[in-house]
């Protein structure tokens, strides 16, 4: 009986286990997760769970009836590929096929690690610790105006906290969006009553306050650090597995790693995208849903499976009362085409490379997103003038 061992019981690990059964895997499946909680979904943590509108976000998967051996509270500490085993404190676990799905860890703010009242927002425990803080309506400071910072600020405002968001760059989402686009999103903070300080560097975090490099002291009953996440791959040190410069597990287009019988998927792995001509590390939910299907297909069907993993990346964010969706992947040189008034409630921006749509950001326009995503998948050309007319559907030239 051949056994697939999956390390990491988040979205990607759970989906891999489920997809193996869906695709007919008859052998054993073991799912090892470091966290003590039944596997859960992360997006609600910065939304409904944080606000206490949902108790939790456990996946509705009946592991036992699917024949999946779920072992929680079991952290994997090493990989010995020659012997086909992974190590845990309770002893080694042998595998025939291994899937690495350990996700990502949030980046810590240097010097803030041991200060009381400093939080991260990655795990269910993080969200449950933050819930009473928000309910107490204290002054909160979020460090980082990325996706997590924006969603946290949204929830904290809704809970009635005074919110200041400190961002080192000159705009929110500087790593993801160009200045022309992000400028409109900066206004959302003020509209919601949150204060956004851009170009602001944290000099020190003290109990009860954040001190900026210019000497400003921000009172902080709680501090939430949202400055990015890095692949959780430290446990692979010494395994001989190939990592990319960003420390993600470097896979091929089948999501196979450099080691025999070892795959990697989700937030911990990067893959070569022929579509975009570069290696992609995607930290979004849809990638942790789609990648596992490719992995399961290769495990179940072996050489008969020829599907390569080359998705159009997709994600969404709910911030400041808006539904924000992005599909594709753009570069600095791509041309922007606006659909609708970005100062208004609903608008879309398209990125064109030559005449071809390569990415779009839709704010409150889910239909644009759905249509645009299909056009991107097809590599379709767009007529600029028609694309700029928000009252007609997006379609190819
Ligand atoms: P993870 O979800 O990180 O799961 C990995 C699991 O592996 C963890 O449970 C971890 O404990 C475990 N693990 C790690 N190391 C080991 C080890 N050595 N041994 C055993 N287990 C280990 N994406 C969107 O597209 N839209 C959103 O709105 C959105 N909202 C989000 C909100 C929050 C607060 C967060 C944190 C993320 C959000 N995301 C969102 C991103 C999305 O949740 C992630 O891309 C997705 O969870 C990745 O799944 P994963 O399984 O690869 O990694």
Task: Write a short abstract of this structure.
The chain is built from seven helices and 26 strands. By secondary structure, it is an alpha/beta fold. The strands form seven sheets. The protein has a five-stranded parallel beta sheet, covered by helices on one side. The protein has a five-stranded parallel beta sheet with strand order 9-16-10-11-12.
Task: Describe this protein's structure.
- This is FAD-dependent oxidoreductase.
- The protein is built from seven helices and 26 strands.
- The protein has 397 residues and is α/β, with parallel strands linked by helices.
- The chain folds into three domains: 3-105 and 229-304, FAD/NAD(P)-binding domain (3-Layer(bba) Sandwich); 108-225, FAD/NAD(P)-binding domain (3-Layer(bba) Sandwich), CATH 3.50.50.60; 321-387, FAD/NAD-linked reductase, C-terminal dimerisation domain (Enolase-like, domain 1, 2-Layer Sandwich), CATH 3.30.390.30.
- The strands form seven sheets. Strands 3-2-1-7-19 form a five-stranded parallel sheet, with helices on one face. Strands 9-16-10-11-12 form a five-stranded parallel sheet. The chain has a five-stranded antiparallel sheet with strand order 22-23-26-25-24.
- Helix 1 (11-22) packs parallel to helix 5.
- The protein is globular, with a radius of gyration of 22 Å.
- Flavin-adenine dinucleotide binds at residues 7-13, 32-35, 42-43, 45-46, 75-76, 101-104, 121-122, 148, 232, 235, 266-267, 283-286, 288, 315-317.
């Amino acid at each position: 009986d051949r056994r697939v061992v999956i390390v990491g019981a988040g979205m990607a690990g759970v989906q891999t286990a489920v997809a193996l059964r869906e695709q007919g895997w008859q052998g054993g499946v073991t799912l090892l997760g470091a966290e003590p909680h039944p596997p859960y979904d992360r997006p609600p943590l910065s939304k409904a769970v944080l606000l206490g509108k949902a108790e939790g976000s456990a996946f509705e998967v009946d592991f036992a009836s699917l024949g999946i051996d779920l072992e929680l509270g079991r952290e994997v500490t090493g990989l010995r590929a020659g012997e086909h085993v992974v190590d845990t404190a309770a002893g080694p676990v042998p595998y025939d096929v291994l899937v690495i799905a350990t996700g990502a860890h949030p980046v810590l703010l240097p010097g803030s690690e041991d200060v009381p009242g400093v939080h991260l927002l990655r795990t269910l425990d993080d969200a449950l610790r933050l819930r009473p803080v928000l309910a107490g309506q204290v002054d909160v400071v979020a460090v980082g105006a990325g996706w997590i910072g924006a969603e946290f600020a949204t929830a904290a405002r809704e809970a009635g906290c005074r919110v200041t968001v400190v961002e080192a760059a000159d705009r929110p989402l500087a790593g993801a969006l160009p200045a022309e686009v992000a400028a409109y999103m900066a206004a959302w903070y003020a509209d919601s009553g949150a204060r956004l300080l851009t170009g602001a560097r944290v000099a020190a975090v003290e109990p009860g306050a954040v001190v900026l490099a210019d000497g400003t002291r921000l009172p902080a009953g709680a501090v939430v650090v949202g400055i990015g996440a890095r692949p959780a791959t430290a446990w692979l040190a010494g395994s001989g597995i190939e990592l990319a410069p960003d420390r993600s597990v470097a896979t091929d287009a089948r999501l196979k790693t450099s080691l025999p019988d070892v795959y990697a998927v989700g937030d911990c792995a990067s893959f070569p995208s022929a579509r975009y001509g570069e290696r992609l590390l995607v930290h979004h939910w849809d990638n942790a849903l789609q990648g596992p299907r490719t992995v399961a297909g290769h495990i179940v069907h072996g050489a008969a499976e020829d599907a390569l993993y080359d998705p159009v990346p997709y994600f969404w964010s709910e911030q400041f009362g808006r539904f924000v969706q992005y599909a594709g992947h753009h570069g600095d040189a791509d041309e922007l085409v606006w659909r609708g008034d970005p100062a208004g409630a609903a608008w879309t921006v398209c990125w064109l490379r030559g005449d071809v749509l390569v990415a779009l950001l839709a704010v409150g326009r889910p239909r644009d997103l759905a249509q645009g995503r299909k056009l991107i998948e097809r590599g379709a050309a767009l007529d600029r003038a028609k694309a700029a007319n928000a009252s007609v559907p997006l379609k190819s030239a």
